[in-house]
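Narrative of accomplishments. A recurring question from our advisory board has been how the design workflow behaves on a single, concrete structure rather than in aggregate. To address it, we present the structure tokens for one chain from the evaluation set, followed by the sequence designed for it. No filtering or post-editing was applied between the two.
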């Protein structure tokens, strides 16, 4: 372990499990395997960027759940006690992995989502069904004593427009066909051949937003996709259309989306991802009756978390043994 920062010799190792919002990490893996050599703390509240260095300074190792907290190089450099990062998943786009390695910090990864690989797709369909059949409103009305207050719509015969047709987009297309829907797709680099292989008809961007009854986003966020759904795209949508985003919040012009929802220019939006996250309690989106919101639950299923945390414990145990496993880039 000579290329990594050494473990403390005069005290137990201090480990923090970060961003455990639902307080479930402690029961999804056997953390007792570390107890003879380490003190494990579960942090259930998000830490504001300005408090990150101060609050994390005592810890030797941090367990990061996906990309809930960002660790740029300047934060890593200000954490001289930090010796290991156990990240969930194979990549972490908001962690400067290169800087961590250069600083002598062991960066260990886990496998992907396991049996929860398509959980985000399942949630996207939950949002679609919730919106088109008014399930949240009808449930609330039933609990208030009412009976049949809104008329919903059927999916059969409608058009699903997929912005992005990778692994998850293709799964969306598969489910849409089971519902009897027509599927169209567009992305900046989507070829007609790949679109048809993914079960969708290739169209240009304007056609997708103009004709789809439901637009669902399945792109990776990057410099070329940030804000890729602009005000001009939302303006093309039908008044009865729905927008679904379970990918990343910054793919969509947030102000433009608020505007079309406030003025009823589209029927509704199902949103699981935001910028920033967690979404502030007073954010305007929380007040809109035609917005069905979930708090970034796409990958948050027990199957995925059990894989993440079981392998995190394995990684930390190997690090304590002096032979860290699943090293990033290895």
């Amino acid at each position: 372990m000579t290329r990594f920062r050494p473990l403390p010799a005069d005290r137990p190792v201090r480990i923090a499990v970060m961003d455990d919002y639902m307080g479930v990490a402690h029961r999804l893996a056997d953390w007792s395997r570390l107890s003879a050599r380490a003190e494990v703390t579960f942090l259930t509240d998000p830490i504001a960027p300005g408090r990150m260095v101060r609050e994390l300074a005592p810890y030797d190792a941090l367990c990061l759940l996906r990309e809930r907290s960002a660790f740029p190089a300047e934060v890593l450099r200000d954490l001289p006690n930090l010796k290991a990062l156990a990240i969930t998943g194979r990549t972490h786009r908001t962690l400067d992995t290169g800087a961590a390695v250069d600083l002598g910090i062991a960066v260990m990864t886990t496998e992907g989502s396991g049996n929860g690989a398509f959980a985000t797709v399942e949630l996207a369909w939950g949002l679609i069904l919730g919106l088109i059949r008014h399930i949240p409103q009808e449930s609330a009305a039933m609990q208030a004593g009412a009976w049949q207050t809104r008329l919903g719509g059927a999916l059969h015969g409608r058009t699903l427009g997929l912005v992005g047709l990778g692994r998850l987009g293709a799964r969306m297309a598969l489910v849409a066909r089971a519902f009897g829907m027509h599927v169209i797709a567009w992305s900046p680099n989507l070829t007609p051949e790949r679109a048809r292989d993914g079960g969708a008809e290739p169209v240009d961007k304007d056609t997708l937003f103009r004709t789809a009854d439901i637009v669902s986003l399945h792109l990776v966020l990057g410099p070329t996709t940030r804000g890729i759904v602009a005000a001009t795209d939302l303006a093309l949508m039908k008044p009865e259309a729905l927008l679904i985003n379970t990918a990343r919040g910054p793919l969509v012009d947030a102000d433009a989306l608020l505007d079309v929802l406030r003025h009823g220019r589209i029927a509704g939006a199902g949103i699981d991802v935001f910028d920033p996250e967690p979404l502030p309690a007073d954010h305007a989106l929380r007040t809109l009756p035609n917005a069905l919101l979930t708090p970034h639950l796409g990958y948050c299923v027990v199957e995925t978390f059990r894989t993440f945390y079981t392998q995190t414990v394995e990684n930390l145990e190997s690090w304590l043994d002096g032979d860290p496993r699943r090293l990033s880039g290895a």
